[in-house]
Write a structure and sequence with these properties.
The complex is a heterodimer of chains A (120) and B (113). In chain A, strands 2, 4, 5, 6, 9, 10 and 11 form a 7-stranded mixed beta sheet that branches. A 4-stranded antiparallel beta sheet of chain A has the order 1-3-8-7, with no helix packed on it. Chain A is globular. In chain A, 0% of the residues lie in helices and 48% in strands. Chain A has 120 residues and is an all-beta fold. In chain B, a hairpin with a 6-residue loop joins strand 11 (90-96) and strand 12 (103-104). Chain B contains no helices and 13 strands. Chain B has strands at residues 4-7, 10-13, 19-25, 30-31, 36-37, 39-44, 51-55, 59-60, 68-73, 76-81, 90-96, 103-104, 108-112. Classes of the chains: A mainly beta (120), B mainly beta (113). Chain A binds chain B through residues 35, 44-47, 59, 61-62, 95, 97, 99, 104-108, 110-113, and chain B through 31, 38, 40, 42, 48-52, 55-56, 61, 93, 95, 97-107.
């Protein structure tokens, strides 16, 4: 079954970091770009960046450069997104989304999302 | 960055009636060498992730009912639901994948009148 399974909800203090995982199954993980998208409560979708496991590349939205780190482990078909220096504004659901084998492609498969709550 | 603007922000339509959602990009997302518009539509129901409905502006994703259709080119796009069903209540998002950063519209909330 083609799917993306994300890690569970997290609660973090301000200033901490969070790492969200996204395990792919049912397809060749390395062949596809994987994107990360954030959605604050009641808000729209915000693109954070992508990884390209095949070529070993990453690209970040300017807003998240220096604070987000996207990595992967092809041996377990898993992508990771770590966000540091959390503030209450980072309270959101974080999604991983598969795109195609080319850089400019639509998102055809989404994880169910991981809720990250930042509160003291 | 390409700014995506949807209209309206919310919409109430009677069951069986047509629903139309518009999406405008601040610059063209048409790639002339292949004549493709790099524009997708997603449906998001409460508590669920977005689901791909339409890509290349007008290609319906496998399994999506044919009452959903996409049209437009360049900077102006439309998602049409020809006959609204109760299960179509959701927020609809357009997205350009022409350039980085990928950008989404603000979303349009569709309800039953």
């Amino acid at each position: 079954q083609v799917q993306l399974v994300q890690s569970g909800a997290e609660m973090k203090n301000p200033g901490a970091s969070v790492r969200v995982s996204c395990k792919a199954s049912g397809y060749s993980f390395s062949d596809y770009y994987m994107h990360w998208v954030r959605q604050a409560p009641g808000e729209g979708l915000e693109w954070m960046g992508w990884i390209n496991p095949n070529r070993g590349g990453t690209r970040y939205a300017l807003k998240f450069q220096g604070r987000a780190t996207m990595t992967w482990d092809t041996s377990i078909n898993t992508a990771y997104m770590e966000l540091s220096r959390l503030t209450s504004d980072d309270t959101a659901v974080f999604y991983c989304a598969r795109a195609g084998t080319a850089e400019s492609w639509y998102f055809d498969l989404w994880g169910r999302g991981t809720l990250v709550t930042v509160s003291s | 960055d390409i700014v995506m603007t949807q209209s309206p922000d919310s919409l109430a339509v009677s069951l069986g009636e047509r629903a139309t959602i518009n999406c405008k990009s601040s610059q063209s997302v048409l790639y002339n060498p292949n004549n493709k518009n790099y524009l997708a539509w997603y449906q998001q129901k409460p508590g669920q992730p977005p689901k791909l409905l339409i890509y290349w502006a007008s290609t319906r994703e496998s399994g999506v009912p044919d009452r959903f259709s996409g049209s437009g080119s360049g900077t102006d796009f439309t998602l049409t639901i020809s006959s609204l069903q109760a299960e179509d209540v959701a927020v609809y998002h357009c997205q350009q994948y022409y350039s980085t950063p990928r950008t989404f519209g603000q979303g349009t909330r569709l309800e039953i009148k």
